[in-house]
Amino acid sequence: MYQQVYPIYGLGVVLALSGLPVFISKLIAEQDDELQQVAIARQLWRMLLVIALVVVAFLWGWAPQIALAMGDRRLTPVIRSVSWMFLGMPFLSVGRGYHQGQYLTWPTSITQVIEQVIRVSIVVLVAVMSLHNSWNIYEIGTYAMASAPVAAAVATLIIILASSSLIKASHVPKSLVSNKILLKRLLVEGGALCLFSSMMILLQLVDSFTVKSALVDSGVSSMDAMQLKGIFDRGQPLIQLGLVMATSISALLVPSLTESYLKGQMVEFRRQFQLLLHVCVAISALCTIGLIALMPQINQLLFSNQQGSLTLAVNMVSILLASQITTYSSVMQSLNRFSQIVIGLVAGLMVKVVTNYVLVIHFGILGASLGTVLALLVTLLIVWRAVPAYLHWNPGSKFNIKLTAVCVIMGFSAWTVGKLMTVLVGPGRLASILVVGISVVAGIIIALVLSIKVKLLSAKEMLLLPHGKELLKKLRQ
């Protein structure tokens, strides 16, 4: 029940944490003085407050219809429970964006950490209390989702206290940007950033509306369909983990890439983009293959059984595709080409909407994984074609041949270690901690050794990495 409604919460997080604050920080940085920054921040807050009230009213009033579209009318209180979190969106997005526009990141960091600690603590508390009070799954989902508005309220209070200069400022002049122009930029530029940031969440939202209904229409009972959807949803945190690992390291290179482009240093720009792509593809490919190779054991460790391991393994391909989309989109943003990104993302989303129901009817929950992979593949092809030709990725390059060899050997080795360890210590959940731990360490060591041996990254590319010079010296010792 929690995962079925989770995409709504995820969209709220994107609006309040990554999409809108980035857009607002850009607007703040464009202003000539602090009073104009305050003026435009207050102007945006009023607009977003109206939007937030409309969203809350829609989710509350239409919750029964939304729940019915998701295939279960009893989800109504769960949807209404999470809807209140959007009231914090104007305060959090404007507060975070205002401070980021002044190059202050601590308000965003502190409110995000506190918000998540409170939310997760409430979820765990609800899980424990449900065991003692015999709550049904809908009550558990409603109380667990209530963690979102509570956490948002606390984060809002903190951001208000941190934004005293924004609130107390007096004699603020009228904003130089008209409401019409600002609203247009909010919808176009802010909307593009939000769409980009919520790519995986939107695909998950499509699953919430189609997977259970398709399973029931294919002859599966309602309760079995819910259980199967729950098994499919196991893949979401694993995908997020892989994406964070793939994009966080490559994100370190984006500022230098943008700087090279602005200075017109196109040779350096191409070289840095190649490194950015190589790092992103290498990490995402190794994460993908590693998760696929050890999926039965990981499934056993996290969820006490190995149901749906094939479905989850196929879904892990999303990490490789989504990380490349993120990399290409980052470059497109530095080139100020937002429209191509939006076209690619919308096209991929439409592919998911059109194919998901049919694929689930024919292949069960495996079809949902296939739908996600197909949607991301379409998005990647469109974004890739929009990138300037001199930045195109060559599948037959030496780097890709080396990476394929490293991935195959690493994946087979991790799979073999996993199988041998399972035979030695048994298939139980506690035993799988040891199985997964040793297999992951073995896979990482093998991948690192092979990458160094085949020189996956050239010396010039390694020099472009943060602390690359020191790393290169250690490897040559």
TrEMBL record:
Q: What keywords appear on the UniProt entry?
A: Cell membrane, Membrane, Transmembrane, Transmembrane helix
State the source organism's domain of life. Bacteria
Q: Coiled-coil region(s) at which residues?
A: none
UniProt entry tagged with the keyword Nucleotide-binding: no
Instruction: List where the protein spans the membrane.
Output: 6-24, 44-63, 75-95, 116-135, 141-166, 186-206, 237-254, 275-298, 310-329, 341-359, 365-387, 399-418, 430-452
Listed under GO cellular component are:
plasma membrane
Q: Spell out the subcellular localization from the entry.
A: Cell membrane
* InterPro entries assigned to the protein according to its UniProt record, in alphabetical order: PG_synth_SpoVB, Poly_Biosynth_Transport
Q: NAD: is it a keyword of this entry?
A: no
Q: How does it sit in the membrane?
A: Multi-pass membrane protein
This protein is called Integral membrane protein
